Amino acid sequence: TIQQLLKTNQHYLERFCNPSTLEIETQIDIPDKAMTTVVAAGEVILPIEGLIDMDKELERLEKDLQKWQKELDRVNKKLSNENFVNKAPEHVINEEKEKQVKYQEKYDGVKARIEQLKA
C-alpha cells in the first residue's frame, strides 16, 4: 500500500522535508489551520497556522473545487449520452466510469476541506 511505501521511506521524507513531526496514517485529525491537497493515494496535510493567508488558501481550494466540478460535469454528460454509451467500446465506458469515481472523490475531499476551514 501507499502507507507502507511512505513508512518504509519515512526517513527520506524527514531528511528532505525536515518537518517537526511526520505522521503517516490512514486516519488523522486535521488541525483547524492546515493546508491540504488531495492526491491519488490520499491527502497530504500541512499545519500552517501563522504560515499562510487563510483567505488565499480558501480561494485556491474554491478554484480547485470548480475544476473538479467541471471534470465531473464533463464525464457525467458523456456517460448520460445514449449515443456515446451505445457506440463506445466497453473499456472506454469503464475508463469514463473510473474517472467519474476519481473526480467525485477529489471533489468531495476538496469540499470537505473548504467546509473545515470555514468552520
UniProtKB/TrEMBL annotation:
Any one GO biological process: valyl-tRNA aminoacylation
Coiled coil (UniProt feature): 51-113
Domain of life of the source: Bacteria
Pfam assignment, any one: Val_tRNA-synt_C
Molecular function GO labels: ATP binding; valine-tRNA ligase activity
Keyword Plastid part of the UniProt annotation: no
Chemical reaction(s) catalysed: tRNA(Val) + L-valine + ATP = L-valyl-tRNA(Val) + AMP + diphosphate
This protein's UniProt keywords: Aminoacyl-tRNA synthetase, ATP-binding, Coiled coil, Cytoplasm, Ligase, Nucleotide-binding, Protein biosynthesis
EC number, as in UniProt: 6.1.1.9
Top EC class of this enzyme: ligase
Residue ranges occupied by any Valyl-tRNA synthetase tRNA-binding arm domain in the UniProt entry: 53-118
GO cellular component: cytosol
Family: Belongs to the class-I aminoacyl-tRNA synthetase family. ValS type 1 subfamily.
PANTHER family for the chain: VALINE--TRNA LIGASE, CHLOROPLASTIC_MITOCHONDRIAL 2, VALYL-TRNA SYNTHETASES
Name of the molecule in the record: Valine--tRNA ligase
Species for this entry: Staphylococcus pseudintermedius
